[in-house]
Recover the amino acids of this structure.
């Protein structure tokens, strides 16, 4: 099934972080990817997101403003199963020496 693509807008990209706003149309997806950095997600919308993972699908219920952290190496395809737009801000933490 062909899904619409989520739309990323990079807001900050410097030596410490990359901050990206992700907008998911209804049914939209990121496509499969592996995170190369630790990251924090701050939902701007309340509702479900489906995560297709190597171990199978998981549905997460997110709440506006309630952030969560994930470590480097996470692999998934993020899908908006809802019928309205879903938005979150992703903050990728670059390793500094």
């Amino acid at each position: 099934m062909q899904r619409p693509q989520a739309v990323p807008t990079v807001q900050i990209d410097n030596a410490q972080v990359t901050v990206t706003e992700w907008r998911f149309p209804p049914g939209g997806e990121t496509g499969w990817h592996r995170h190369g950095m630790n990251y924090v997600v701050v939902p701007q919308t309340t509702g479900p997101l489906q995560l297709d993972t190597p171990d199978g699908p998981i549905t997460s219920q997110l709440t506006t403003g309630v952030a969560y952290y994930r470590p480097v190496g996470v692999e998934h395809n993020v899908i908006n199963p809802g019928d309205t737009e879903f938005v979150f801000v992703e903050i990728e933490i670059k390793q500094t020496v």
Remarks:
- Residues 7-93 form a domain with the Jelly Rolls fold (CATH 2.60.120.10).
- The chain has a mean pLDDT of 96.
- The chain has one domain: 7-93.
